[in-house]
Each structure stands twice: as C-alpha cells, then as structure tokens.
Amino acid sequence: MEDSMYGSSDEEYYNGAYDDDENDNEYDRDPEPEYDSDVSCGKAPSCRVIRKESLLAAQKEDLQRVVDLLSLKEHHARTLLIHYQWDVDKVFAVFVERGKEKLYAEAGVSLEEKDDQHPASEPSTEITCEICFEDFPAEETTMMDCNHRFCNDCWTEYFIVKINDGKSRRITCMAQKCKAICDEGKIRDLVTAKDPNLAEKFDRFILESYIEDNKRVKWCPSVPHCGNAIRVEDDEYCEVECACGKQFCFNCLCELHSPCSCVMWDLWLKKCDDEAPTVTWMSEKTKHCPKCHKIVEKDGGCNLVQCICGQPFCWLCGEATGLEHSWSSIQGHTCGRYKESHLKSADTIEDYWRLTHYYRRYKAHIDSLKIEASESKPKILDKVRSLEAKELQLKDFSWAMSGFDRLSLSRRAVACSYPFAYYYFGDLFANEITKEERQIKQNLFEDQQQQLETNIERLSMFLEELFANYPEDKLMETRMKIITLSTV
C-alpha cells in the first residue's frame, strides 16, 4: 500500500480532534517552549508554561500594564497587584468602579508621595527617631512615601525580622496604625548594606509572589520540581500539562481526575484512604451467595463460582447464573452496569455494595494504567525503534506513541468516571434531580461508559500486537486501526 492513501487521515488526526486536547507527545514536543511563544501547555489551549528563567519577564508584563494605565512607580504597581493577587483585570475593575483613591487606600499605596530628601536649608539637622529615641543626622534616616521617617538602623532591623518571618511581600510602615506599604527599593538598599544574602532572599520572595499570590499562575507540582509554572488565561478549573510532561488539575494540583469535580475527587480519595483496605479485601476474597447469603471465598481464577448450597453466580457482580460459560463470558449474563437489585435494606449494606462496585472497577483501570506505563510503553518504544531501523515506505511512526498517550488519558478518564458515578448518582445530588431523571442520566452515562471501555480495551489490544514484525501492508492496517480508535 502507498503511504499517500493514509496521509489525509493522519493530518486530520494530528491537527484535529487529537491536538485539541493534547498537542504534546514524545515525538513532537517542543523541547524548550518559552513564555512568550505560542506553545500551549498540552490540555488547556488558553494556558502557557512559564519557565524559571522567564518568570521575571512574565511578572514585568503585568506590572507594565498597571504602570501604563495608572502612571505609577513600579513598586506601587507591584503593591497593587500583590494586594489583588496579581489579577490585572481586578485592579482595572476596582479603579473604574471605586476610583483611584479607594484603589490605593485598600492596597496600602500612599496617595501623596513625598520626595525623600534631607532638609535643604539645614543639611546637618539631626532627627529624632521615634522608635529608638536617638538623634541621627538626616542622611542616616529614611522616609517612606507615607511621610514617616525613622533611622536606618531601626528600619533595617525591622525589615530583617519581616523577611525572616516570610512577610516580605507586603511590609507595612513601622509607624503606629500606618498601613502604607514600604518602598521595596528602599528596603532592598537598607538590607543589602547589612546582609546581602538576605537581600537576595527578599528579591526572591518578591519575584515568587507572582506565583504564590496569583490565582492564575501555579507551580508545576512535579517531584522533583521542574522549576516551571503554568499560567491560565480563562478558566482556572482546567487540566493542564507542563513542559516536563506532568499532567495535573490546575485548581487542586492533584492528578487528572475528570469527569470528577475537585470536590468529588477529594471525597473519593478520603473514602479510599479510610475504607479501601477493607473494601479491597472483601471484594477480592469474599462474596455473599445470592441464594443462601453465606460468605463465599474465591480460591481460583474463574469468575464463575459455586456456593456450597449449589448455587453458581458471577464473581464480579454477585448475580446468580447458570453453569455454562466460555473463556470470556458467562452465557446470557452481563454485569457492566450497576443495578439497584444489589442493594440491601440497611443503609450501611447499601453503601457497601455501591462502594465495592465502583471501587473495584476504578481500581482495575488504575492498575492497568500503571502496568501500561511501566511495561507497555517501553515495549512500544522498542517496536518503534525497530521499525525506524527498517527500510519501509512508511517513515512516520509517531502514531504508535500518540495512540498510547490517548490510551493513557482515556483509561484514566474511565477510571475516574466510576467515582463520578458513585457520587453523582448517589446521595450527593439527591436533592437536585428526581429519581426518574437520575435513572435516565445514569442509563445514558453507563452506555457511554461501556462504549469507552470497549474501545479502550480494543486500542490496548492493538498496541500490544507485535506490529514491528508485520509485513508493511498489515502494518498499515494496524496503524489505521490505532489512529481510528484513538480518534474515537
């Protein structure tokens, strides 16, 4: 077969549905994306990766917007932005709605800036510091924009304490009841004269405030830390990918968990921590016979088990069945859906059955995800390298790793769909939808869930094939199957 037969499909795949969500992979990822480039951070199109060396430029960009609009000094613009969590739009909105005076007063910016000069007529005039009550020449004192002047020694000791306490981003004036923010340039000059290392620490805190105080910018939670940050422009409730490859939820910094909300995911993790050991042991080792309700322990690999009372039943769902079965299924029986018939009368038993149903399937997909990452991915890379070493008409084999990336994302999504279903179709939203509406939505959800699971397993099967040894016509066929399933 000629490669041109598949060219349009490849182009549609890599520039279409796939790239909308995930335009980075091991083959086409830009090794050094800069802050001001057009490279997005993988999953969310309106986010950018800020590398450590680009952090200052990113901060300067926001500072300059405020400086230009309000005709401020840079340190006053930084004070405003730190107060409003580096939300430039919020600063502009407050300025328009409440005026410059309210804007400055709430942030601690002094409206009447004073020129820090010594009395021109009396250059040798001594000034009494109201902190230590000693007299100092004017040149050994410093006045802030709020017009409060103290000796340099008192200022310096005060700044040192604040910086060491981690409060260097908004250091207020020493004067009683004064809420004005001190000039960072004067802080830096005074501290540098006493302790240059501490001055560097102060500069680092000021710079990192762009990350720490900014709800639209967060450090990548990679371990060890890659040094990158992610900035989102529109929706902070999104999933992003750093240039280092780490994928995470921007809002809660946890691993990817859609379709679960952050609240659902937090509840699920806590429930798994509290009840997972018991649920895992009970679901793996024992089941109740659907006929006599005695506890049955599984001691073999077959999922069709038989109680001592003679009743055969499905190990996965606990439903009574016949004895006839094949290697892949029990005749006339499916158990992918959660059924209300499992439920017992007591609330605790009801929740146990629901939890074991959803947890067992969630855990199975998470375990598969881990195995595929540790075992399948290296095998696929080996197969790609083997194909690249051959003289084939087909030259581009990135479809294999792109298919694996899609498999990983999809498997994580279907795994997280089980805790989503546990909460959404449980008590969490019981007061928001009627029982009839919930049943309709649950049926539709489970139909889509089962279709996704089917395609995930098919994609996994094709990726496991030894396609590196296939003749070229069969290789092209497998390639199109992987691309098609990835798109689906």
TrEMBL record:
Keyword Lipid metabolism: no
Recorded catalytic activity of this chain's protein: [E2 ubiquitin-conjugating enzyme]-S-ubiquitinyl-L-cysteine + [acceptor protein]-L-lysine = [E2 ubiquitin-conjugating enzyme]-L-cysteine + [acceptor protein]-N(6)-ubiquitinyl-L-lysine
UniProt keyword annotation of Zinc-finger present: yes
GO BP term, pick one: protein ubiquitination
Record-listed E.C. numbers: 2.3.2.31
InterPro entries referenced in this protein's UniProt entry, alphabetically: Ariadne, ARIH1-like_UBL, E3_UB_ligase_RBR, IBR_dom, TRIAD_supradom, Znf_C3HC4_RING-type, Znf_RING, Znf_RING/FYVE/PHD
Chain segments carrying region Disordered: 1-42
Keywords of this entry: Metal-binding, Repeat, Transferase, Ubl conjugation pathway, Zinc, Zinc-finger
Signal peptide residue numbers: none
Cofactor(s) listed: Zn(2+)
GO MF: ubiquitin protein ligase activity; zinc ion binding
PROSITE patterns: TRIAD, ZF_RING_2
UniProt enzyme class: transferase
Residues of the RING-type domain: 125-339, 129-177
Pathway(s) it belongs to: Protein modification; protein ubiquitination
Bias kind Acidic residues: ranges: 1-25
Job of this protein: Might act as an E3 ubiquitin-protein ligase, or as part of E3 complex, which accepts ubiquitin from specific E2 ubiquitin-conjugating enzymes and then transfers it to substrates.
PANTHER family for the chain: RBR FAMILY RING FINGER AND IBR DOMAIN-CONTAINING
Entry similarity comment: Belongs to the RBR family. Ariadne subfamily.
Entry protein name: RBR-type E3 ubiquitin transferase
Organism in which the protein naturally occurs: Nicotiana tabacum (Common tobacco)
Lineage summary: Eukaryota, Viridiplantae, Streptophyta, Embryophyta, Tracheophyta
Gene: LOC107788888
